[in-house]
Amino acid sequence: MSQISKLAYVDQKLGAPSDGQQTTRILFNTIENPGTTSGLVFFKTFQGLTNGQTNLVQNKLDSMESVVIKNIYLAQFATNGALITFGANSGFEYQQTLSIIVGNQQVVKNLPIQFNQGQNGQSFDRLHTNAGAQFFGAQTAQTQSVQPCEIRLLTDIVIPPQVSFEVRIDSTNAEYGTGAVVCALSGYGKIFSAGNTF
Fold first, then answer.
1. Which of 52, 70, 127, 141 could bridge across to 134 with cysteines, CB 3.0–4.6 Å?
2. What is the number of domains present in the chain?
3. Residue 138 lies in a domain
């Protein structure tokens, strides 16, 4: 079943409007200064975050919006803005799992993310052509060794309108530092379309 037909099927079952504008949709949320912890919960707190840190004001979509998640993106930034390995201390990847809760159902359960990250950018290399290729400067060649953790889902996860959702990361006291961690969910969605009312 394609993303479009799955989203239409779920919207129809829930009685949600199906006449919205089709779009590529990315939902993202940032946690500032997470420190060392055994758990993070994204899409839970929005207070004080700017437009560059989140594009939602609550952990629900509007009544006319819905999304099919195809990719999960996790990134960690140092206080100077440099991209560093997600949840790692001195290059060592901690065992971390990811869960997604939509409504009262856990739709992704304890997915290990260490296989999708690392200093060699393995997941990014598999998903993107030449992602790990060397970049040639004037005299030296450098490799982009730290990649964001990106997970491409085989099953379409639907976030229907007006249903709460969150993404949880559980770990063995991973070090997330004093900068920021970001979670983004990308895929296909429908947004409000005013039609001829404007």
1. 141
2. 1
3. no
